[in-house]
Design brief:
Elements lengths: L6 H26 L5 H10 L17 H14 L1 H20 L6 H6 L6 E3 L14 E4 L5 E11 L6 E7 L5 E7 L5 E6 L10 E11 L4 E2 L5 H37 L1 E2 L2 E2 L4 H29 L5 H26 L10 H11 L6 H6 L1
Parallel strand pairs: 1-4
Antiparallel strand pairs: 2-3, 3-7, 4-5, 5-8, 6-7, 9-10
């Protein structure tokens, strides 16, 4: 991935792709087989200091959004599950930094250096604007009582804190930051997402969780505005993960065709194979450019929602089609444990649903 990177960004990219290939990829193979845990996978990221890149100072190094995108693409080459956990943490951290007061969520941001964060928006009935059932009842002392369920919460059961979307009796939408250990909050049974079984995900139940005014994120009825902005950031992060899947797929194809003999010559010398490899490279390049453009628009504080949707839709579609095309090119070996294409296909398909179906995204 070479998008006019600075020297520091090139060094970061080279370091993380090596880390991803040498440490994350072997660990991810064990993770997918249940031999390691999600918490241990996240600890690898913590040991490398990666969560801090997405945290505002003084809690982290506050890397640019473009640099965060580089990190996610590199990490996804070795472990899509780890990249999804990190993206969820950074999305929540962005919400705290953009809509919170300087010292309001210091304890949560400090905890995020070691443990993931999570956003709890989706509900059992869908979680859209009209489907929000999680209630926020204002108390006489100015505090709020939260009651309801949230489902498909990435990092659920593992997170240090949750950003919860709720509505008042007057239909105002509010976002609250709830520490994991707060009374009345508990994670129910884990939710297994097909294609990403190693990603920690759970349903949360809030039963009269008492939150103070200092736990309110943003101002009155800003909950949907915050959710819209943060979801757009999440779409760009999702696109970066799809780019990482595409990059790993391309690396597998290059290595396979360089080593495989067809007749008296290497497979990569065949004209048909060269054409197919060119098509794969074109799809990957398109995804990289759209994702990088969206990330730069974020850094430039421009209206990036359209670019985010373009990147998410195109990158996720290209990720799936690239793995399919690579599998056809390699034949039966693609279904064996020798190559991770079967796993990559499941992960690529799961990412297409990470921030909403393609139909929903293309309507934005």
């Amino acid at each position: 991935m070479d998008e006019n990177l600075t020297a520091e960004q090139r060094d970061l990219w080279q370091h993380l792709t090596t880390f991803s290939q040498e440490k994350l990829a072997p660990f991810d193979a064990q993770l997918s087989q249940g031999q390691q845990t999600s918490a241990e996978a996240y600890q690898l990221l913590v040991n490398e200091g990666l969560p801090e890149l997405g945290l505002a100072k003084p809690f982290g190094s506050e890397a640019s959004f473009s640099e965060q995108i580089l990190v996610l693409a590199a990490i996804a080459q070795g472990s899509v599950s780890a990249a999804v956990m990190l993206a969820s943490t950074w999305t929540a951290a962005a919400a705290l930094s953009l809509y919170g007061k300087p010292a309001q969520f210091a304890e949560t941001l400090q905890a995020a250096k070691q443990k993931p964060l999570a956003i709890a928006v989706t509900e059992p009935d869908g979680g859209g604007r009209e489907a929000i059932q999680c209630s926020a009842s204002k108390q006489a002392d100015g505090s709020w009582s939260l009651t309801g369920d949230k489902t498909l919460v990435v990092n659920g059961g593992l997170a240090a804190a949750y950003i919860v979307l709720a509505k008042t009796l007057r239909e105002n939408r509010l976002q609250f930051v709830v520490p994991a250990g707060q009374a009345g909050l508990r994670a129910l049974q884990p939710v297994n997402l097909a294609g990403l079984p190693a990603v920690p995900m759970a349903t949360l139940r809030l039963n009269g969780v008492q939150v103070s005014k200092t736990q309110l994120l943003g101002y009155q009825d800003q909950g949907v505005t915050i959710a819209r902005h943060i979801n757009a950031l999440a779409r760009v992060m999702s696109a970066a993960i799809s780019v990482g899947i595409g990059q790993r797929t391309m690396a597998i194809v290059k290595r396979y065709t360089r080593e495989r003999v067809l007749g008296k010559s290497l497979l990569n010398m065949d004209a048909v194979v060269q054409l197919q490899a060119g098509e794969l490279a074109t799809k990957l390049r398109m995804s990289e450019l759209l994702t990088w453009d969206a990330a730069q628009q974020v850094d430039q504080k421009r209206d990036f929602e359209t670019a985010a949707t373009m990147a998410a839709v195109t990158s996720s579609q290209n990720g799936v089609s690239m793995v399919q095309q690579a599998s056809q090119l390699m034949g039966g070996v693609s279904t064996t444990s020798t190559l991770p294409l079967t796993q990559l296909m499941a992960e690529a398909q799961a990412i297409t649903l990470a921030t909403g179906t393609l139909t929903q995204l293309t309507r934005k």
